Amino acid sequence: xxxxxxxxxxxxxxxxxxxxxxxxxxxxxxxxxxxxxxxxxxxxxxxxxxxxxxxxxxxxxxxxxxxxxxxxxxxxxxxxxxxxxxxxxxxxxxxxxxxxxxxxxxxxxxxxxxxxxxxxxxxxxxxxxxxxxxxxxxxxxxxxxxxxxxxxxxxxxxxxxxxxxxxxxxxxxxxxxxxxxxxxxxxxxxxxxxxxxxxxxxxxxxxxxxxxxxxxxxxxxxxxxxxxxxxxxxxxxxxxxxxxxxxx
Length: 248
Hints:
The chain contains 9 helices and no strands. The chain is elongated. The chain folds into 2 domains: 41-124, Serine Threonine Protein Phosphatase 5, Tetratricopeptide repeat; 127-236, Alpha Horseshoe (Serine Threonine Protein Phosphatase 5, Tetratricopeptide repeat), CATH 1.25.40. By secondary structure, it is mainly α. The termini are far apart. Helix content is 60%, strand content 0%. Mean pLDDT is 78; it is low at 210-241. α1 runs antiparallel to α2, α3 (89-101) packs antiparallel against α4 (107-120) and α7 (158-170) runs antiparallel to α8. The longest helix is centred in the first third of the chain and has 39 residues, at 29-67.
């Protein structure tokens, strides 16, 4: 009985020299499409979550900074927020406030963001902010149109009274200025801004600032207090694209 020879393996298939057939699973076109969809969906979800994180983290920083009155420091955070979410009308308003309250003020930029806030929320009441912006632009007549409905609701509004007092002071209406600055003293932010004007007002009224009277010169003056805002000075041109909405 002859011994069997071992089978000799040769490369290729069927002795043709072709590469061996691949083993394992090969996805078809439908499977590849499904996998691609889930990859894209995952990337979108990651981007969405990252955007949400950016909005939340910057929003928290804005709230902290504004609570401390750090307007300039809040601007970069607000810019990042409105770039990602332009329709955030409240953040647009806050950004306008920051541009209005920094030194030196930038009322044109403030106006631009107030206009965007009104675009996304036409019912938003920005009479107070728009009046302040027009006042900074030098258009006191237009500012008064916005201040009037605010003062009708709250004659003691500190911010509006500061701007009114400053304008009265610049036009030599010292009694009206003193009354407005006294109303501004109800809020520390506006009281601090009014303090230099009150000191200068005392010097103009008394010739020098008497001890204990520099901040409240109007208390030592006779005559009735003004009963309403006046319209000092001629109007000047403001930004042509600024919002013109005011309360009736």
